[in-house]
Amino acid sequence: RSSIVDAAHTLVVDGTMLKIYAWYDNEWGYANRYVELARKLATSL
User: Which InterPro entries match (predicted)?
Assistant: First the structure.
């Protein structure tokens, strides 16, 4: 996962916009996306 969403604090503003509270660790998210890509490439070869 790239980020953790706090659903209890997510809200709709003016009926048209979402305000989402999320926490992330940039390096952790990058590493997870890299692993997902490597797995996808491995299954397509």
Answer: GAP_dehydrogenase
Domain boundaries, the chain: 4-44
Residues 6+ apart with CB under 8 A from 5: 20, 21, 22
Beta strands 17-19 and 22-23 are unpaired
pTM of the predicted structure, to 2 decimals: 0.47
* Number of separate helices (H) and strands (E) present in the chain: 1, 4
Give, as one character, the DSSP assignment of residue 16.
Answer: T
Residues 5 and 36: beta-carbon distance below 8 Å = no
pLDDT tens, residue by residue, 1-45: 678 899 999 999 999 999 999 988 888 888 888 999 999 999 998
